[in-house]
Amino acid sequence: MTVVSRRAFLSGSGKVALGAGLAALGVPSLAACSSSTKSGGGGDGVVSYQFLGNPNEGDAAAVSTALNAMLKEKGKSFTVSLEPVQNYTQAMTLKSSAGQLGDMFFTAPWATDYYRLAAAKSLLALDDLLPAHAPTLWNSMAKTTWDAVRVNGKIYGAINQQRFPKLWGFIAQQKLVEKYRFDVASISHYEELEPFLATIKQHEHGIVPWATDSAGNNTVFNPELFGWDPVASAYGLAVRYDDANLQVFNMYDTPEFKAAAAVSRRWHEAGYAVSSPLSAADAAAQNSGGKVAVLAGQTGPTNPQYYPFPTVGKVLVPTPLLNTDGVSATLTGINSHAGNPEQAVQLLEMLNSDRDFYNTICFGIKGTHWVFTDESLGVVGFPSGQSAANSKWNPNTDWVFGKQFNAYYRSVDDAKHKRWEAEAQVNRTAATSKAIGFALDTTPIKTQIATLSAALGQYRPQVVNGLQDADKGVSSLLKNLDNAGMQKVLAEAQKQLDTFRKSGG
Amino acid sequence: MGAPALVALLVFNYLPMAGIILAFKSYDTYDGVLHSPWVGLQNFHFLFSSGDALRVTRNTVVMNTLFIAANLVISIGLALLLNEVRDRAPWLSKLYQSAMFLPFVLSYVVITNFALTFLNADTGIVNHLLHNFGSSGVDWYNAPNWWPLILTVVEVWKGVGFWVIVYLAGIISISPEYYEAAAIDGASRWQQIRQITLPLLVPLIVINVLLSLSHIFNADFGLFFQVTQNSTTLYPTTDVIDTYVYRSLTSIGDVGMAAAAGLYQSFVGFVLVVTANWLVRRRGTDALF
Amino acid sequence: MVTETAPPAKAHRPARHSPPAFNLRRLAIHCGLAIVALGFVTPLIIVLSASFSSESAITDNGYSPLPQRFSATAYRYVLGDPGKIVQAYGVSILVTVTGTIVSLTIMSMLAYTLSRNDYRLRRPLSFYVLFTMIFNGGLVPTYILITQYLHLQNTLLVLVLPYVVTPWYLLLLRTYFSQLPKDIMDAARIDGAGEWRVFTGIVLPLSKPALATVGLFVMLLYWNDWWLGLLYITDDRLAPLQLYLYRILTNIDYAASNSQLAGTTIAIPIQTVRMAVAVLAIGPIVAAFFFIQRFLIRGIALGGLKD
User: Fold this and answer.
1) Membrane: is it a keyword of this entry (chain C) (predicted)?
2) Going by fewer Cβ within 10 Å, which terminus of chain B is more open, N or C?
3) Contact map slice: C 17-46 vs B, CB within 8 A
4) Residue B219, SS3?
5) CA dist., res. A265 & res. C125, Å (int)
6) Cβ–Cβ below 8 Å for B161 and C110
7) Backbone φ and ψ of B191, nearest 5°
């Protein structure tokens, strides 16, 4: 019995989809973002730029000024107004419903629903503008890469270049790796971690050998590990990356998933993970406190990385994949109502080609927000007295603004091992999926998608965390997915894939 | 005299209700509320198309009924006890009330942490106590059968202070003359409570229960999502309409389907309240309207 | 529960007003209430002590009622920018005080109207109020209304107006008013007092307990709110305390889950900061509660309230 639901009468039904308890819409932009015009907000000669914000962005106005000075130096006739937006997806849904989208904004299938905005023509088609006004950006990626973000044949988002393939693997605390002389490089499957986990369990009291969380993120099962392209990963759909027929399947209805579930179950029973997985936030608190030995997840091609303790990782994906999922993960779109789209595209070009300009938006003003800790290597750090806790400009999301490979390094280790070059090399050598450019249109199967999401949310974490007997857990998951409409979703996806294949992909 | 409040309700509550039509539309941010296409009842389908609908509805209603009953019985009990000691020890009585009310100001985010300190299987206080008694403890976050009780305790702990104050104010406003007359007739305290206090509290109880009924289909998201750590093994007893809808729609964020779920919950609450109100009026007690 | 073990002493005055000085029944009640009260307070003490503990102690030993390895790190983290937090307190106090006064005034005005049996529109208007408790338009339409039509974003008004009428509290007030003795009001009317005089001169003074109670709840509503701030306030100077604290928490959660990117090598005191934030957020309202409670108890003496 709720005494009074504080926001029930305000948010009510809307709050459900828009995040409910989590639906905190923060819009801490300091720039003039409340000028609510359908024309995109910036006004003449000003490009308003909205992006995924975090709380360390109090100096947006000062950074805008610094960027504008650089634009003027380059002879540009426009200025930029930075508008970091917190709780991005929900806030942008509201902003678009109220006509408050900026001239230019960060977009992706997982944030702001790129496909919906593109289909609705809220985003501007960039096919002609990019080669004309952003040649460096346009030529920095292959045609197949650009094809990955096409919607109905047109490009609606400029790709923020970063490492595209998902490199699933694990990271382990360097301290423990060295103490027990664990040969990280020798591992090629998760099962082979078992002796190390057992050692930790036996000798390191107070350290959890294997990290888990209640949502079942970062587990021993990921489609890319098996050469599968997750064409709709949120609903468990995948195709083999080299399958010319584009035969779609339920990735949970496979021997690979069953085997992964058995591994999780064994580790749970052996006590390698906590008996009841913590929520994501609490798990993060515990992990960052150094109370965990090994975590599953994506890892970079270079070592060590910091979590914040030094870690050594190993990638377990045999064939890195170039697919829609990876390439479309970080885009910048232009509002179809933008006052001056050419200027916005020129701004994109600056962000993706001018290193100083790009690093100013990524790190802030030199001396104020960052200093070189090693100028020859291009490594930056906070000025003395500053940290991630009190910085006024530390977005820490290079991939939001443009080509990440142009960014300064944050750690000497990354610089020494030339991490960006290694990641660019991963992109160049990755295998291209036959399904690249395909995206599932969920409109005809909305009801099934909703029930399927609910069923996956309920039954998947128990299986991947090993809380249930593997065989029983998997068959109960599959039964519930079928009840929720999995077959209908598979059929619709296959239909769309066939159309995609016939139209030449 | 009532005009300002009526206007405030009109502007901030009634005007946005135009948005209820979203439940019947396929909402498209580009087209806006008015120009999005109509889809009839399609947005409601997902609520009923899986076997979970029955379970989440049952959990919602059962848990809310438990909360209403537990809060009612415990708050009236505590209010009666406080009333007994109020005259002689006003200072202590005030202290008790303050203590009981304090959790009311806390958010479920904070309470989630409390629950964890008590219930964590490895380091929690409850299992430590159980170990002392030779029990091996319980893995609470994987033990669904305990959660109706746990959630009721949490809900009562957080909210009962509010109701104690409401009912104590009600008890205090009963004229002392009734008790004086009863005492002269030789009635014991217990008889006085049964025959004077409780009957005179009935109108207040009726109104509070009626108001609570309107929300019996709406579960407190913070309680059911956060305090349970969203542990999926607990779903058999803790998955409620709000958490189910949240899980269904976070990945697609469909405004129309969310509006449909909200409208469905409101509609059932509305029917319940109007029916209950009608029953209460027939019995001649004070009703809501 | 109450038992009959100790019947009221036979005396020449009514039992309720002269129980014996020492009484087993009352002692038992006190014991029971004290245990209950302790149960309610213990978790708060744990929060307070955790906020003054060191992060590693919490991670190692869990929570306890006394601080372990005393440390004020969490507070230093939260209070890192004192100017800002003072500003945020200022906004919250202003909004809470204004909101509570305005809300109580206009809600009791309507509640009084609805409490009068002779008022023709009593039922339809009660229904009008109740209806808003059950149905609502949802987030998107409300957001559009407030930002596109009322243009209230980034004003202090947007933190006050949407909560100015809470149907539940209005109905509580109405119930209370309707139980006030009618003869006093009728007498005043016969003496020539208008409705406004009756309302301000008789109804309000007689209703101090109800006003104090509802006033406290309204105060809580305003004080604890971060939702309106999140939706409509982008100007840092207008951010209320809860929003400021909320951002600190988001910030720290963000930093904890992205520490690999952040390049920090120090574990962030996430658990103790959460607790310190809770203490800072509830501190003033708990103080206000103690003050109001005194008033509430005193107001309950209710001079003229006898049938």
Assistant:
1) yes
2) N
3) 17, 19, 25-26, 29-30, 32-34, 36-41, 43-44, 46
4) coil
5) 60
6) no
7) -65, -40
The structural domains of chain A, with segments of one domain joined by +, span 22-162+327-363
Whether C41 and C139 map to the same domain: the answer is: no
Mean pLDDT (whole number) for C8-21: 43
Q: How far apart are the first and last CA of chain C?
A: 30
Q: Among positive and negative, which fits the CA dihedral A303, A309, A314, A319?
A: negative
Which chains contact A through at least 3 pairs of Cβ atoms less than 8 Å apart? B, C
Nearest residue in chain C measured CA to CA from A58? C236
Let me know whether C56 and C165 are in one domain.
no
Helical axes C82-115 vs C241-257, angle rounded to 10° = 130
Residue range A425-461, pLDDT digits in tens:
999 999 999 999 999 998 899 889 989 988 999 899 9
- Which of A62, A134, A117, A97 has the alpha carbon at shortest distance from A393? A62
* Interchain CB distance below 8 Å, A5 and B215: yes
Q: Are B258 and A17 in contact (CB under 8 A)?
A: yes
- Per-residue CA distances from B210 to A4, B171, B287, C121 (Å): 14, 20, 8, 21
In angstroms, the CA A346 to CA A380 distance is: 27
Q: Rounded to whole angstroms, how far apart are CA atoms B159 and C285?
A: 16
Q: Residue C69: inside a domain, yes or no?
A: no
Domain that holds residue C188: 81-299
Whether C30 and C133 share a structural domain: no
Helix residue spans in chain B (DSSP H)? 3-9, 32-35, 45-48, 52-86, 90-101, 108-119, 125-132, 147-172, 176-184, 189-192, 198-213, 221, 235-238, 241-249, 255-282
Cβ-contact A80, A64 below 8 angstroms: yes
Contacts of B55 (CB under 8 A, 6+ apart): B236, B239
What would the pLDDT profile of C233-289 be if each residue is shown by its tens digit?
Answer: 888 789 898 888 887 777 776 666 654 444 444 556 777 888 888 888 877 777 777
- What phi and psi, each to the nearest 5 degrees, are found at residue A393? -150, 95
User: What are the residues whose beta carbons fall under 8 Å from the beta carbon of C142, sequence distance 6 or more?
Assistant: A10, A11, A14, B12, B16, B19, C136, C162
Strand order across the beta sheet in which A228-232 lies: A228-232, A237-240, A249-250
What whole-number distance in Å separates Cα of residue B177 and Cα of residue B183?
A: 10
Domain ranges of chain B: 38-282
Which CATH class, in words, describes the domain spanning B38-282?
mainly alpha
ipTM rounded to 2 decimals: 0.79
Task: Answer yes or no: is C7 within a domain.
Answer: no
Spatial distance between the Cα atoms of B234 and B230, rounded to a whole number of angstroms: 8
Q: What is the pTM of this model?
A: 0.81
Q: Which amino acid is at B253?
A: G
C52 and C134 housed in the same domain: no
- CA dist C249 and C78 (Å) reads 9
Whether residue B116 and residue A5 make contact (CB cut-off 8 A), yes or no, is: no
**Residues C223, C270: one domain?**
yes
Question: What gap in Å lies between CA A233 and CA B184, rounded to an integer?
Answer: 78
d(CA C218, CA C239): 19
CB-facing half-sphere around the CA of B129: CA atoms within 13 A: 7
Q: Which amino acid is at A418?
A: K
Q: Which fold has domain A22-162+327-363?
A: D-Maltodextrin-Binding Protein; domain 2 (3.40.190)
Residues B43-73: tens digit of each pLDDT: 888 888 777 778 888 999 999 999 999 999 9
The domain tally of chain C equals 2
B173 vs C contacts (CB less than 8 Å): 176, 179, 209, 302, 305
Residues 6+ apart with CB under 8 A from C76: none
Note whether C180 and C207 are within 8 A (CB): yes
Report the DSSP pairing between strands A208-210 and A292-298. Answer: parallel
In a shared domain, residues C116 and C210: yes
